[in-house]
Amino acid sequence: MTITAHLRKGPAAAALAALFAVSVLAACGSGKTAKEPAAGPAAAAAPAAVLAPVPPMGFNTWNKFGCNVDEKLIRETADAMVETGMLDAGYRYLVIDDCWQVERGADGRIIADPQRFPAGMKALADYVHGKGLLFGIYSDIGPKTCAGRPGAAGFFDIDAATYAEWGVDYIKVDWCHCDDLDAPTEYAKFRDALRGSGRPIVLSICEWGRNDPWKWAKGVGQLWRTTADIGDSWDSVVWIVGANSRHADAAGPGGWNDPDMLEVGNGGMTFDEYKTHFSLWAIMAAPLMAGNDLRAMTEETKSILLNKEVIAVDQDPLGAQGRVVIERGYGGQVWMKPMADGSRVVAFVNYSKGELDQYVRWSQIGLPPGPAKVRDLWAHKDLGIHTDTGRHYNERFQVKVPSHGVVMVRIWPVEAAK
Ligand code: GLA
Predict the structure, then answer these.
(1) Average pLDDT, stretch 31-35?
(2) What pLDDT was estimated at residue 415?
(3) Which among 109, 111, 88, 89 is positioned nearest to 100, based on CA atoms?
(4) Among candidates 340, 333, 287, 341, which has minimal Cα distance to 311?
(5) What is the DSSP string of 335-347?
(6) CB distance 288 to 262 below 8 Å
(7) Which of 15, 114, 283, 369 holds its CA 20 to 30 A away from the CA of 315?
(8) Is residue 46 predicted with pLDDT exceeding 90?
(9) In the predicted model, is pLDDT for residue 383 greater than 60?
């Protein structure tokens, strides 16, 4: 696939194309030259930044379909990603999670389930690429995947070469059956195998935060899970947000904390809860991997996953992971993410059982005293100019937030609002 095809739908396509060109040159260079990066974390950072300058977005089969994956599902999902506008909104990677693989051949090469994927992975990748999407797959550092399929242990190089040949652009690598292994060492070896394949492939590290990946994974993979698996429930979202929020320092262009894939649209939460789930993933600059059936989305689900104003928060090139700036103690939380254009995104979250009044002062979100333009990112409405001179308490900016809901606004100091 060409660089242009990789980037066809991207917001900053030109800049990214230049970066990809650098990556391809680095990956495909003939032999070692003075410019080729030496092994080690510092050298590794350059290609990592190229592969994921903003958090990856896409779809992954696991949350909705588990082991029930086949080529029909993938083709139909690829079609749906285009038809529903998901691709236009930025969701590019179509990733098959566990259970696509059944065994290894005598030559050591991994074999896709011939019943479920009769046309083979190369043909499927071609179909996905033909839609302007990127193709992702799943493996495990250990001898078996979490669902007991063949893992990568002992076969890193041959697998990387096979995946490159198939046209894989993204691989999620799990950590089942790996208890006695050293995660930084193993994932670095896997990264090196991917590099050796000559194809730029995003490495999604999935060791569930067991080995403090926020300390070492940048430069190894482009995203790393920080927690155990998400479930389709409000309690799960609340728990994951608490855990993922502790590692904000580690995130930035090239490497992202991954609080796991989205559950939006899977039925276990209310509309408000799903909006909060999505808003928090966006303000935490998390990878946005949809995990619902894209072929059958309700209008409510589409209004969440396709909210381009919230997606822009996630995809902002500054790449800051938002943080809690106010913890009220009665179920109210205020989050802030600084944006590349100098604006601030603020999410008022309500974990309590009733409606809450929430508020913020400009001084609490790093804005200068004075007027600022405010826009509501869920109502898609300008709320006008709000002035907080810092001199009067009643100048605070105030909203009402429904139970388990969110109000998300973007605020530009007036000098920067053009
Ligand atoms: C682990 C991962 C999940 C999923 C399953 C597949 O639990 O954390 O995201 O990939 O394995 O078996």
Answers:
(1) 33
(2) 76
(3) 111
(4) 287
(5) EEEE-TTS-EEEE
(6) yes
(7) 369
(8) no
(9) yes
Question: 123 in helix, strand or coil?
Answer: helix
Q: Which two tokens stand for residue 146?
A: 């979490």
The C-alpha atoms of residue 327 and residue 348 are separated, in whole angstroms, by: 10
Angle (CA) 37-38-39 rounded to 5° is 120
Query: How many Å lie between the centroid of ligand 1 and the Cα of residue 116?
Result: 20
Does residue 44 contact residue 219 with C-beta atoms inside 8 Å? yes
Residues in CB range of 324: below 8 A, 6 or more apart: 245, 333, 334, 335
Q: pLDDT tens across 113-140, in order?
A: 999 999 999 999 999 999 999 999 999 9
Which residue has the least CA distance to atom 12 on ligand 1? 146
Question: Do the Cβ atoms of 233 and 268 come closer than 8 Å?
Answer: yes
Exactly one of 79, 126, 157, 229 is catalytic; which is it? 229
Strands 356-360 and 332-338: unpaired
Taking CB atoms within 8 Å and a gap of at least 24, the contacts of 77-81 are: 77/294, 77/295, 78/127, 78/128, 78/131, 78/133, 79/131, 79/295, 80/294, 80/295, 81/131, 81/133, 81/294
Q: Pairing relation of β-strands 170-174 and 134-140? A: parallel
What's this model's pTM, rounded to 2 decimal places? 0.89
Q: Which residues line ligand 1 (CB under 6 A)?
A: 62, 97-98, 145-147, 174, 206, 208, 229
